[in-house]
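2024-03-11 09:14:02 INFO queue: dequeued item Substrate-binding domain-containing protein, len=342
2024-03-11 09:14:02 INFO validating residues
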Amino acid sequence: MAPTYLRSTASALLAVGFAGALTLTACGNSGSSGAGSASGAAGGAVKVGLITKTDTNPFFVKMKEGAEKEAKANGVTLMTAAGKFDGDNEGQVTAIENMVAAGVKGLLITPNDSKAIVPALEKARAKGVLVIALDTPTEPQTATDALFATDNLKAGELIGQYAKAKMAGKPAKIATLDLAPGISVGILRHDGFLKGFGITQGDPSIVCSQDTSGDQAKGQAAMENCLQKAPDINVVYTINEPAALGAFNALKAKGREKEVLIVSVDGGCTGTKAVKSGQIAATSQQYPLKMASQGVGAVIQYAKTGTKASGYTDTGVTLISDQPVSGVEVKDTGFGLANCWG
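2024-03-11 09:14:37 INFO prediction written
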């Protein structure tokens, strides 16, 4: 049981401006009409809303692909929107309001702010809309009907265990390159890493912590800052693989890329290739396509039977590395590349 606090295409597009922050599109199995109207079977197809953090991150691109495929296979209308940037809560609130007004039966959302989004979701649920969080839980998790996600605590724990075993008793000087305040997925991965490594927040082995927003350029800048503060860092935890590659670039500039162990989370194709090349030692791979397809399926089930999905559904996580260590189960990059995304 995971912790309860825990992630034919339309012939036309429907675009509505969301205060300059979002674009809403609706895809169905046939036809398209004006804003807020359904396309599809006679009597109107079931409408499902998908709101991701951004529309540029490969993780969310793959999530959208999974939702589109499931919607097309079942003849339902998929409406999509994305934040203008990671952390854009206001844009997501506007998207929720527009989708509810358009008559969606269910909403799938990766919250940009796990707490600030809650009032908007509660209003949607009060109107009978099924609300499912994908990838990132709300705070509290009960603000949504269900959560379909990686066990992010476990994802962090796996790379923490790996890093601990890989260090083989050598004193660790750890830098944590985190996400941003207020985002539960970042908190869970960070806490999981500490748990897996066998330390707690404030442990003296943690010599630097910086936020990166999961961005490669910010990850590089954060690593540069950490190296100025503690030049002898030998372990780097990163929130995701773009941040990890930024850290690698900063270390390479100092000639230290072969001396420092970098571990990460996501399992995108670029990141998995970086594991294969040795830039990243290990990553915890997650599966966004599965999150979205199962979420769409849950809304369809609700539309057909009135039965709401509830609780937490773990969509899986696998530790990927070509440098196995004793006592930690890993799969190699052959498996990782066969199951990656992006």
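2024-03-11 09:14:37 INFO annotate: The mean pLDDT is 88.
2024-03-11 09:14:38 INFO item closed
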